[in-house]
Amino acid sequence: MKRSAFWPRGLARHLLTHPGDLLILGRAGWRFRRVGWWRRAHFLPLPDEAYWEFRRVTAVGTEGELDVASTLAAAKWSLLQPRAR
Asked: Residue 66's CB: how many other CB atoms inside 10 A?
């Protein structure tokens, strides 16, 4: 998976000027983690590639890229939803 698939352009710059959004993105990212992430190498709680691609395509379309504003809006929305696990 391309690194840009996870990180929208300008996200690091935005987080430097809005550090409070890091907690929102971290909590939302934790919800997207792959089940059993600690069992497979690189041992990071990243989402499954197929699931992440599905979520990205349904959000912005096949040719679109995530932007900072829509990423933050989606993160805030996901935190308001009940847990499914």
From this structure: 19
Amino acid, res. 68: V
Residue 20 identity (one-letter amino acid): G
Burial of 20-51, coded b for 16+ CB within 10 Å and e otherwise, reads ebeebbeebeeebebeeeeeeeeeeebbeeee
This prediction's pTM: 0.69
Percent of the chain at pLDDT > 90 equals: 14
pLDDT band, very low/low/confident/very high, at 5 (cuts 50, 70, 90): low
Rounded CA gap, 75 and 85, in Å? 17
Q: Could you count the other beta carbons within 10 Å of the beta carbon of residue 75?
A: 19
The residue ranges of every structural domain in the chain are 3-76
Instruction: Name every residue whose Cβ is closer than 8 Å to that of residue 80 and which is 6 or more positions away in sequence.
Output: none
Distance CA 15, CA 7 (A): 12
